[in-house]
């Protein structure tokens, strides 16, 4: 086992940042800690790194109790959101920093730095300074510096948060490929659901300091464990269980609310016994799909996602009268406010 978190709690004043968290992360896996601001994900990452000490519980790294270990003794690589590169050092010097601190022989340092420059696709830029690099390139230097000391664990705190959307997208793909090459146990913090779904082997969904669910991207999306997980991982319509949309299709629940994914809303041009009437309030073209905002006759608003092919077939227009039905909906055993 790479990382084991046992009953870990951490409180700052009256605020309970991490609350009795249990978590196991397999050696060599790439795991995302996902949640909104204040959910405890960054605090948990810092506890694993040794930058924070838990009030209770313990941390095991590769089977050894590391709860009281100093940061420098944990053999962990840490990458921050804002790079934290040394501005007065070249790319090579930044990458070599940890190796120089360990007094590694110069020929070995040089060889390792060149290997890492090639690994992060920055060969030829070793003599530049951070100010001469793009944001994406600087973040790759930060990753190379963290990997230089061959850590047992790599921790990344919102590593792409300071970058624009296109660069973030490119670096996600790059990080996944990099991990597949180096296989170091990696944990990264993000509030971006798409980022977690695209990159991680497993997602840990956190809320109010607790773990709501752990699973593969497919598991947490298709089989959410709570209303919070379903509402946080991907878009969702929340409707009264008494809605005619469900009753017409024989979908019943004793719970007050039902959760319906936009891609599970079917739009038809002609009515039948399973549909209810609606009017298209707005159409939003998202490139790969079209989002339709629908108003039912009882004034409830429903969002539907259609593929471009389906949209082109239906030839929908704003204010058009259409007929809708759900392909499926979900209720939860215990309802709580989200």
Automatic annotation (TrEMBL):
Q: What is its main location?
A: membrane
Return the CDD domains for the record.
ABC_CysA_sulfate_importer
Question: Which residue ranges does the record assign to the ABC transporter domain?
Answer: 3-233
Spell out the GO cellular component terms annotated for this protein, sorted alphabetically and separated by semicolons.
ATP-binding cassette (ABC) transporter complex
Topology relative to the membrane, per the entry?
A: Peripheral membrane protein
EC number(s): the record gives: 7.6.2.9
The top EC class, named as a word, is translocase
Is the Translocase keyword given for this protein?
yes
What's the name of the protein? ABC-type quaternary amine transporter
Organism, per UniProt?
Answer: Leptolyngbya sp. NK1-12
| Species lineage | Bacteria, Bacillati, Cyanobacteriota, Cyanophyceae, Leptolyngbyales
